[in-house]
Automatic annotation (TrEMBL):
PROSITE patterns: HAMP, HIS_KIN. GO terms for molecular function: ATP binding; phosphorelay sensor kinase activity. PANTHER family: SENSOR HISTIDINE KINASE CPXA. It comes from Vagococcus allomyrinae. The chain crosses the membrane at residues 144-165. Its main location: membrane. It is a multi-pass membrane protein. This is histidine kinase. The lineage of its organism: Bacteria, Bacillati, Bacillota, Bacilli, Lactobacillales. Its EC number is 2.7.13.3. InterPro entries: HAMP_dom, HATPase_C_sf, HATPase_dom, His_kinase_dom, HisK_dim/P_dom, HisK_dim/P_sf, HssS/ArlS-like, Sig_transdc_His_kin-like_C. Residues 233-445 form the Histidine kinase domain. It is found in: Cell membrane. It catalyses: ATP + protein L-histidine = ADP + protein N-phospho-L-histidine. GO terms for cellular component: plasma membrane.
Length: 445
């Protein structure tokens, strides 16, 4: 609106200046025309009276009467007077000087042009009088036309600018409304980005920002939900071993027990303490993966599996499970040795837990131009499809014997997922009623 007002003022001011300049130019032309006419009359009169009779005032008046009747029109007339001053302002006139001025007579503007006659009549003045009413009327008509034109142009500009500004500001008003909705918590609002101009690009940027905010808030909410679930599950997981430890400790303090019962109780306390220690170590390792820099190297898969075999050898013997990883000597992968060892320990340990006595856990690998696929197989009890979809959630344990009878906390698979994410890979599960295969896909090997 301020812009519109400024444009209108500038337009009116420009038209006003042009009209004033035009008026003065036309007035000067009008004066010049009548000055020329007065000069012709004066020269002819001087010539005629000098030829007829020099110094005869009667002859002068006779000749002048003829001139007055000849040049008398509706708007102009001439007069002579015996004086050397301007009859309008009583200022003295000089020879060959032409004096003019515009005066009003009874409200009517007149142009008065006065000069001295020549020769023996230098004491006489000739005054040419012209009525400027018609000129003023034409000027007023021109001024009125200017004003009407200015008003029409201003009205047209006003309507045009209003329409243009309305079209320009309408998308901005919509964007403002969308921003207000976004500020009020409506993260699903989106702006119309139909136009390819700056407004359209602004709408696109706004939508990108809204999309980012929506995703960011969604991630925060999901993270908060997972943390709440983590705390709840952790509380539940540590309650059972702590209750058992406290119960057996109280039993040892209060009851009179035999040496065999004491050793059995202490063994259970030690077992539950080890379980709590394992739980805390997994929690710490899960945090460390996300908040520390890792040390990546090119590693031999067979070397890692040999270390895993050594770590799990006692458990393999106790469960009477065979671990096979032959024909993997020439396969290499790129990653953090500590994390990759932890990854395979968890996956193979899960396979051992699921296997019965005489079972088998084995490793296979397949190399393509862009991927290395390492699969961990077991022939133990399988996992249902519903449980497969939840694998990777902290503290999730299936109801099958793969987890419950081992007392696992459900953090191992979650840790595996985080490790493989740090190595730009993916983890896939396939299971049937008998046996499970976990495929690790490394995109860079």
């Amino acid at each position: 609106m301020i812009t519109l007002l400024f444009c209108g003022v500038c337009l009116c001011l420009g038209v006003f200046i042009i009209e004033i300049i035009g008026y003065h130019q036309n007035l000067n032309l009008e004066i010049a025309q009548h000055l020329a006419e007065q000069t012709v009359i004066a020269e002819n009169l001087n010539h005629d009276i000098s030829v007829l009779n020099q110094g005869n005032e009667k002859m002068l008046l006779t000749v002048f009467k003829f001139y007055k009747e000849t040049y008398l029109t509706e708007n102009s007339q001439i007069e002579i007077a015996r004086t050397k001053t301007n009859s309008m302002n009583q200022t003295p006139l000089k020879e060959d000087e032409v004096n003019y001025q515009i005066l009003k007579n009874e409200g009517t503007p007149y142009l008065y042009i006065t000069n001295l006659l020549k020769g023996n009549y230098r004491s006489w003045t000739l005054t040419y009088q012209y009525d400027l009413s018609s000129f003023i009327w034409r000027s007023n008509q021109t001024r009125l036309a200017y004003l009407i034109g200015c008003g029409g142009i201003l009205l047209t500009l006003t309507i045009g600018l209003f329409v243009i500004l309305r079209r320009l500001t309408a998308p901005l008003e919509k964007l403002t409304s969308m921003a207000d909705q976004l500020a009020e918590g409506d993260l699903g609002c989106r702006a119309d980005q139909g136009s390819p101009d700056e407004i359209g690009r602004l709408a696109t940027s706004f939508n990108n920002m809204a999309q980012f905010m929506q995703q960011y808030i969604s991630d925060l909410q999901e993270s908060s939900r997972q943390k709440e679930q983590l705390v709840a599950n952790l509380s539940h997981e540590i309650r059972t071993p702590l209750t058992a430890i406290k119960g057996y400790a109280d039993y040892l303090l209060i009851a009179e027990v035999t040496e065999v019962e004491r050793i059995e109780a202490l063994s259970f306390i030690t077992s539950e303490s080890a379980r709590l220690q394992q739980l805390s170590q997994m929690m710490l390792q899960s945090y460390t993966i996300q908040h520390t820099s890792l040390d990546y190297h090119r590693l031999s898969l067979a070397t890692i599996l040999k270390e895993v075999d050594y770590t799990l050898s006692e458990k393999l013997q106790q469960k009477n499970v065979v671990f096979d990883y032959e024909k993997l000597e020439n396969i290499e992968l790129y990653g953090d040795p500590t994390l990759l060892k932890s990854l395979f320990i968890n996956l193979i340990d899960n396979g051992i837990n699921a296997s019965e006595a005489g079972g088998k856990v084995w490793i296979t690998a397949e190399i393509t131009q862009t991927q290395l696929c390492v699969a961990v197989h077991d022939n133990g009890c399988g996992i249902t499809q519903n449980e497969l979809e939840k694998i990777g959630q902290p503290f999730f344990r299936s109801d099958s014997s793969r987890a419950r009878h081992t007392g696992g906390a459900g953090l191992g698979v979650t840790l595996c997922h985080k490790i493989i994410e740090q190595h730009l890979g993916t983890l896939h599960y396939h299971s049937s009623e008998k046996g499970t295969t976990v495929t690790i896909v490394f995109t860079c090997c």
